[in-house]
Amino acid sequence: MIDTPSEVVDACHRYLETFGLVFGAFDFGIREDDEGRAWYECNTGGQWHWLELETGLPMTSAIADLLEMK
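-> C-alpha cells emitted (70 positions)
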C-alpha cells in the first residue's frame, strides 16, 4: 500500500468540489521515471466493490450514507 500525499488528497477534494461531485474514484499511476504520479481519470462510479470485499470495510453503506446527506 502507498500512502497518498496530502497535496494529492487536497487536489482530489478540490476536483470533486469544482464539479459538484460527492464521490469520485480517482485513478493514478506511479511514473517509471521517478517524476511522481500520473493522474489518469476520475470515475463518478468507479470500480471499488472488490476493495470492500477484500478489506471488509462497509464502503457501500458509507457511500449510500454520503449520497443521502446531499
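The helical segments are 6-18, 49-55, 59-69.
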